[in-house]
Write a structure and sequence with these properties.
The chain is α+β, with helices and mostly antiparallel strands and about 120 residues long. The protein has one domain. The chain has 3 helices and 7 strands, in the order αββββββααβ. The mean pLDDT is about 90.
């Protein structure tokens, strides 16, 4: 993983924290799905069931967010974004809140695509 990719993943995860971003983590023998609760410097912190508190480096080898591809937008979401709401910060917040992958993390292997069968946000 390049430094540029690590920075992109860190920036993305930080911007999604207020919206309950779900992630898959794997570290040693521990693996599962979590809701990210805190990022401290370059470290993701979260609770993991009876295992207690975990922390892993922000690295796609250890943690990946579940995101929806832009192509999965509903008609309502598409209309909100593309019909007169072109102010960048509104779009960015809207995409973060709706877990849309506007940075292309899925294609880069830095995020997991949400599908009907694999949707931790339901």
């Amino acid at each position: 993983m390049t430094e540029e990719e690590k920075d992109l993943l860190l920036k993305d995860l930080c911007s999604r924290l207020p919206y309950g971003v779900k992630c898959h983590f794997k570290y040693g023998s521990a693996e599962g799905d979590i809701t990210l609760s805190c990022i401290d410097n370059n470290v993701a912190r979260f609770e993991y069931g009876w295992h207690g508190r975990f922390h892993v480096s922000i690295d796609a080898n250890y943690i990946k967010p579940y995101l929806r591809p832009m192509s999965s937008m509903t008609e309502e979401e598409y209309n909100f974004i593309y019909n007169g709401h072109a102010i960048f910060w509104i779009i960015e917040d809207y995409c973060n809140k709706h877990h849309l992958d506007y940075r292309g993390l899925i294609e880069k292997g830095l995020a997991i695509e949400v599908t009907k069968e694999n949707n931790p946000y339901k």
